[in-house]
Specification:
- This protein is an alpha+beta fold and about 625 residues long.
- Helix 11 packs antiparallel against helix 13.
- The chain is globular and about 70 Å long.
Length: about 625
């Protein structure tokens, strides 16, 4: 009898262990909450993971491919063969799918598609993602630049900052910017939406594909009701470059995707989504998705172990803590089209709280501290790159010479890389600012986004070795939540920033332009001195500027010529320390074994395509 009871108890225990927790819900614990829910402002993976569940694009990637595309809200992928790419690559026609419903019950129309792209172009927040469409369609990088090109003055000089209304003499000209240029470039033609580019641009389809928040489709009427642009030609400027929290869609979302937004609890840093049963592909198998930013690793680990989390963000250095955890599956070595780098602000905002006194007096740094090449090179020498990859990333990464992933055209492993050398760093510091840096010392604050252990370790490594070189050198390392960190770098307050770039689309232009062009997302944040340097022609580049070479490569059709241009740009960037490539990471996915249907695509933000998932033991 005693033996019978022992067997029964063990059987019950086995059943309890095998029981799937929260069978209708996927819970992901990660390290950062969304920056915004406005798809035309969002430019980070935390926001992208949420928005990808709520909204959809015209095209999608097939499975794990970053090359093969399939129709999503469109019914065909434009090509020369099917006649939907015309005019030598300047016209793209997208037939729009019928019968697709938004979460509010409205049916998708071509007018929604037209409005979505026009609203994004006209909103165009500084440091946001809309530069990609501006570049692809109009050969500029912003609405401000386009207005200057058409009207003769940038939009920022035409609008009254208090009223957001144009100076009277420019009002008609601004109306024509929309009616004569932007509106004709995106037109409804029956059931089709037609895009007209100013010149051929090879990566255009990739910009519209997959997980591209900037190309997600809004419901026009709903967006207007929330307070977005009303679609009229004489009001659009009131909605240009609104601050993040002033966007009507900052904390609201409503699309055609497989999940609806229930709540974004910013106090708990938790987003709750529920299944949209009228999704045109059929309802998801999972009823609810919770994406929860929990910065403390021990809490994420405990939730994963108990089965309270289905996916968990696991920094590589903590991988041994989960490798033998019962009921947990780990997929390692996943390719990422990404580079993590250290970059410098050559003109920090003078009121930044991260530059101390704002002077080179031992208690701070001047705003243009990093415009000195010797300072930048000194920082490049104080990073133990191999130790970061071995000990922090647990081997899940590799070195690259510049800010270009090894899988993309133009990568050259023979380009020089910075070495770890305290002696060389000291030599550079002694030369910096004509010896004044060595003599007077400096003090600055280096930030990392909390929860990102790799970036914290790099920041602390820089602090340790810099302070070892000269006791007059002081660096404070401080963690900030991801939205705060993101806003601070975009607004020019960080003297230096450690940041990664996950490909918007799998083309070298998306990295080279982003990091090294003055209008690039990270180039933009590096100050006026940086802008002047990369836009000035130089004999080193055969009389061209770095900007000009990047622009030439974007429209070059010969891949061999493109590759050589990108090699020259990378060499120039290394020579002048325009940035310091820390590592090309590899990814890992950690999940409970009861999660089924998971797959990986290098372009996908976040843990999973939740639409494809279900849970069973």
């Amino acid at each position: 009898m005693r033996r019978f009871w022992i067997i029964a108890i063990l059987a019950v225990a086995a059943l309890i262990f095998a029981e799937v927790k929260n069978p209708d819900t996927i819970i992901t614990v990660t390290i950062g909450e969304p920056d915004t829910l406005d798809p035309h402002f969002a430019y980070d993976t935390a926001s992208g993971e949420v928005l990808t569940q709520i909204y959809e694009c015209l095209l999608e990637y097939v499975g794990d491919s970053v090359i093969q595309m399939a129709p999503r809200l469109a019914t065909a992928v434009p090509s020369l063969e099917n006649g939907l790419i015309k005019d030598d690559g300047k016209t793209y026609v997208f037939p729009i799918r019928k019968g697709v419903k938004f979460h509010n019950g409205a049916e998708l129309t071509p007018e929604d598609v037209e409005y979505s792209f026009e609203r994004g172009l006209l909103f165009d927040p500084a440091g946001g993602p809309m530069w990609m469409l501006w570049e692809a369609m109009f050969e500029v990088y912003s609405l401000d630049e386009f207005v200057e090109k058409i009207v003769g003055k940038p939009l920022s000089e035409i609008l009254d900052p208090a009223t957001k209304e144009p100076l009277p003499e420019y009002r008609d000209a601004l109306i024509k910017v929309y009616t004569d240029y932007i509106d004709p470039a995106i037109e409804v033609d029956g059931d089709n939406v037609v895009f007209k580019l100013s010149r051929p641009f090879g990566p255009f389809l990739s910009i519209l594909c997959g997980y591209s928040t900037w190309s997600m489709i809004l419901n026009k009427q709903w967006a207007i009701e929330q307070g977005c642009w009303d679609g009229k030609p004489d009001t659009w400027w009131k909605h240009w470059d609104l601050p993040k929290e002033e966007s009507p869609l900052y904390a609201k979302a409503m699309g055609t995707g497989p999940f609806k937004l229930v709540e974004w609890d910013r106090t708990q840093m938790r987003v709750t989504l529920e299944r949209f049963d009228d999704h045109w592909r059929g309802p998801a198998k999972i009823k609810k998705v919770i994406i929860w930013a929990i910065e403390e690793w021990s809490t994420r680990r405990a939730m994963l172990e108990k089965g309270d989390a289905d996916f968990a963000a696991v920094p590589a250095q903590y991988l041994p803590q989960v490798e033998n955890m019962p009921g947990v599956v780990i997929t390692k070595g996943l390719p990422i089209i990404s580079v993590t780098s250290l970059h410098f602000n050559w003109n920090v905002k003078p009121d930044s709280k991260y530059i101390g006194s704002g002077k080179l007096d031992g208690n701070g740094i001047p705003p243009d501290f990093f415009s000195d090449e010797h300072v930048r090179r000194a920082f490049a020498y104080v990073i133990n790159y191999d130790a970061v990859i071995k000990d922090v990333l647990r081997g899940l990464g590799s070195r690259v010479p510049a800010d270009l992933p090894s899988s993309l055209l133009g990568y050259d492993p023979n380009l020089p890389m910075f070495e770890f050398s305290i002696a060389k760093a000291a030599e550079e510091f002694k030369k910096a600012w004509n010896g004044e840096v060595w003599k007077k010392g400096f003090k600055l604050t280096l930030l990392y986004n909390t929860g990102n252990e790799a970036r914290r370790t790099v920041a602390e490594m820089i602090k340790t070795y810099v302070e070892m070189i000269n006791p007059k050198f002081k660096i404070e390392v401080r963690g900030e939540q991801w939205p705060t960190y993101l806003t601070s770098y975009k607004q020019g307050y960080l003297p230096a920033f450690i940041i990664g770039w996950l490909a918007d689309y799998p083309d070298p232009h998306n990295f080279i332009q982003t990091y090294y062009h003055s209008a690039g997302t990270y180039g933009f944040a590096q100050g006026e001195n940086f802008k002047k340097f990369v836009s000035t022609p130089t004999p080193e580049l055969n009389g061209k500027s770095c900007n000009e070479l990047i622009e030439q490569a974007a429209t070059e059709t010969d891949p061999n010529v493109r590759a050589e241009i990108y090699r020259k740009v990378q060499q120039f960037a290394i020579n002048h320390v325009l940035g310091v490539a820390l590592y090309e990471p590899q990814s890992l996915n950690v999940r409970r074994s009861w999660v089924k249907g998971w797959y990986y695509n290098p372009m996908m933000p976040g843990a999973a395509d939740y639409y494809k998932l279900w849970k069973e033991e």
